Amino acid sequence: MDQAGPTPRGADFLLLDPATAPARGLTDWLATALRSAIDDGLLAPGSRIPATRVLATELGVSRGVVVEAYRRLSGEGLVGGRTGGGTTVLIQPARAEGPRPQPARQGPPRLPRPRLGTGIDLSPGVPDLSAFPRGLWLRTERAVLTETPPEQLGYGDPRGHPRLRTALAPWLARTRGLRAGPDDIIVVSGVAQAMALLAQQLCRDGVDSIAVEDPGSRGAVNELGFWGLRPVPVPVDDDGIRVDALAASGARAAFLTPAHQFPTGVVLAPHRRRELLAWAMMDAELVIEDDYDAEYRYDRAPVPALHAAAPERIAYAGSTSKSLAPALRLGWLVAPPQRYEDLVAAKHASDLGSPTVPQLVLARLLESGEYDRHVRLVRTRHRARRDALLSGLSEALPAVTVKGVAAGLHLLITLPDGSVDDVALAEELQEASVLVHPLSWHRRLPGPPGLVLGYAAHSPDSLRAAAATIGQVVTSRLS
């Protein structure tokens, strides 16, 4: 008679989120999780663990990964199997005396990112990485390495290299209306580091919550939450964040994307700007302004950054992630003067300063005008791709509302309230080889469904084909 315990259902007993699976080392990841489940008693001796094919399907990994993980545990004497009997837990490992080591703290949770295989990934926030100016960057880097004296290759100024800060100041004034000198700028490893430094500073100041736009960037919400701030959702309408709801929230800090709100694409209206600035000056400790895709404006003039109107209350952050590539990890933070020195100290403590050579390359590109020329070229390319996706959607879904088209690298399809589950719709599109974000991923408050589509990374023909597929799936769901 088979005495084995019940088989755990699917992968739930592992408490694993498939979206957190590493790009490499899947076998180690799974074997460690199984070993921990046995050690913690989630899998008692005699328990039968799921078949390799079942667990592979649940986790979205190849069956070979699961087979190899089981083989390792078998070699350690933790599990065993026989024909027709499945794989069962053999022993409970002896616990070491003394307190168990705590697991390492994981980073901010990431958005679910299903494996697409072949198809088109329209996830928002992905720039056209094929447009990175490799030849220009290589030539400029060679020039930088030729002219840079050895002493500048040591640990640099934690604020950032003086040459880059000197080049950034007039560029930010010309393109975004900032009134900031070189000594007001901190070079950071992208907007994410700026958020981390500011969040930790706010927590030290006794601020425990932060208002965030809703819908708004889920990645930003996760980042702020990881560093100890409780996100408080505040609704966004066609004029931007509702300042009356912001004031009623009781939050003393806010994270905003006022020039091109993510994901709706709306611009903070003039009367809302005035209301927001009044709130910032009277009731706020800090407003964090994320200017995440300021370079890309197609059908309207650039909107000046909020920072210039209240520099003592607003921290402005931007980066090259959308204009060049996220891998460069180059960004800038212009913070209120009273916060500057503490942020520089925190930046120094976190990484001893940003890499010098990429800073000097960017400085030369700004000084020579090559950076602006590159952005103009890519802007033209992105506009053509936006137009292709728009035309495809207008043919496939003529009755659907499309928002946020005047700027940026994504657009938003909104659907009638209560008409469809946008998560289920996104899953159906994934099965049709088109990956999109359901709007509800970026929402905590009730609201209509929708789809967020990024278009920067794909050719016009691919985008038109994706629009046709989206039209077919959405039409079938709504009919």
TrEMBL record:
Gene3D superfamilies: Type I PLP-dependent aspartate aminotransferase-like (Major domain) (3.40.640.10), Winged helix-like DNA-binding domain superfamily/Winged helix DNA-binding domain (1.10.10.10). The keyword Cytoplasm does not apply. Residues 24-92 form the HTH gntR-type domain. Pfam families: Aminotran_1_2, GntR. InterPro entries: Aminotransferase_I/II_large, HTH_trans_reg/aminotransferase, PyrdxlP-dep_Trfase, PyrdxlP-dep_Trfase_major, Tscrpt_reg_HTH_GntR, WH-like_DNA-bd_sf, WH_DNA-bd_sf. Keywords: Aminotransferase, DNA-binding, Pyridoxal phosphate, Transcription, Transcription regulation, Transferase. Residues 93-124 are annotated as: Disordered. One of its GO terms (molecular function) is transaminase activity. PANTHER family: HTH-TYPE TRANSCRIPTIONAL REGULATORY PROTEIN GABR (PTHR46577). In the C-terminal section; belongs to the class-I pyridoxal-phosphate-dependent aminotransferase family. This is PLP-dependent aminotransferase family protein. The lineage of its organism: Bacteria, Bacillati, Actinomycetota, Actinomycetes, Mycobacteriales.
